[in-house]
């Protein structure tokens, strides 16, 4: 069986020498400390797992800085049962009363129906079209590599994973994603994931990944701890709790689905 520490993809990573950050040629590498056998056992029992310290530390930090520095994001939200996708700068250019009206309408819809509001960068779609972030393209290559997909198959027990569909997400104060199960006809989704990239995130800031049972009780709560991977089966009811207005930073992640063709 291929070990996790051998799963790599070449990029420029941040490391530290004598207390100073340097950029050197390194690799996206999954943690050498991860116990794949234990992870498989947990996933088999609960259909979900939170794996800490999933990536080599320097590469995770480099991804975080890249997401922080990205100049443009899309703002996606559901309003009056319709999906909206516009540039974040376009939304910010609106009059304050218009922005407030949209937000209030989104929140009102979330009282009873599936709803969401957050920023994203659709990495997978943009790579296909030729307009993309170079570093996220490298990361997308890593999580689509055969060795990486084999690791995910081993942990999840899902054998027919063929590729990874991913987006970068940025949840700011007031952003949220209400409960749903990720099942969409024609998408061929098998498992969902979240690579958490929020440094020094506090659970009080919200943005927690919530899992429900059939009685609407919480079964698990995964805080978005830096450099952890949330992995769970499609069909699992889950949500992202509202990011608090006093959160000191955005909730950053690369999220998506393992799919078959």
Q: Can you give a write-up of this model?
A:
28% of the residues lie in helices and 35% in strands. By secondary structure, it is of the alpha+beta class. It has a single domain (4-259), classed as Jelly Rolls (Sandwich). The strands form two sheets. Strands 3, 4, 5, 6, 7, 8, 9, 10, 11, 12, 13 and 14 form a twelve-stranded antiparallel β-sheet that branches. A two-stranded antiparallel sheet has the order 1-2. A hairpin with a 2-residue loop joins strand 1 and strand 2. It is globular. The model is unreliable at 1-6 and 14-26 (pLDDT under 50).
Q: Let me know the CATH homologous superfamily.
A: q2cbj1_9rhob like domain
Helical percentage: 25-40%
CATH topology annotation: Jelly Rolls
Q: State mean pLDDT (0 to 100 scale).
A: 86
Major beta sheet summary: 12 strands, antiparallel
- What is the CATH top level name? Mainly Beta
Helix vs. strand class: alpha+beta
Q: What CATH architecture would you give?
A: Sandwich
Along the chain, the helix and strand elements come as EEHEHEEHHEHHHEEEEEEEE
Q: Report Rg.
A: 18 Å
Shape: globular
- Domains (count): 1
Task: State which percent range the strand residues make up.
Answer: 25-35%
> What is the count of DSSP helices, taking H or I runs of 4+ residues?
7
* Low-pLDDT segments: 1-6, 14-26
């Amino acid at each position: 069986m291929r070990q996790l520490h051998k799963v790599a993809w070449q990029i420029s990573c941040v490391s530290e020498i004598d207390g100073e950050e340097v950029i050197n040629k390194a690799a996206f590498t999954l943690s050498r400390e991860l116990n794949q056998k234990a992870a498989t056992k947990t996933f088999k029992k609960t259909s979900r797992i939170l794996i800490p310290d999933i990536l080599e530390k320097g590469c995770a930090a480099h991804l975080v800085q890249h997401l922080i520095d990205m100049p443009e994001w899309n703002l996606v939200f559901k309003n009056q049962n319709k999906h909206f996708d516009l540039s974040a700068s376009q939304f910010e250019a609106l009059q304050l009363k218009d922005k407030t009206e949209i937000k209030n309408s989104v929140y009102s819809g979330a009282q009873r129906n599936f709803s969401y509001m957050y920023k994203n960068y659709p990495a997978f779609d943009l790579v296909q079209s030729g307009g993309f972030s170079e570093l996220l393209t490298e990361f997308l290559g890593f999580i689509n590599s055969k060795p990486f997909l084999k690791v995910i198959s081993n942990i999840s027990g899902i054998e027919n994973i063929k590729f990874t569909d991913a987006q970068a997400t940025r949840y700011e104060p007031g952003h949220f994603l209400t409960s749903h199960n990720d099942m969409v006809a024609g998408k061929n989704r098998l498992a969902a994931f979240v690579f958490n990239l929020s440094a020094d995130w506090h659970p009080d800031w919200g943005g927690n990944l919530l899992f429900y049972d059939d009685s609407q009780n919480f079964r698990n709560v995964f805080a978005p701890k830096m450099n952890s991977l949330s992995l769970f089966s499609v069909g699992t009811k889950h949500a992202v709790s509202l990011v608090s207005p006093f959160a000191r930073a955005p909730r950053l992640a690369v999220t998506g689905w393992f799919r078959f063709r």
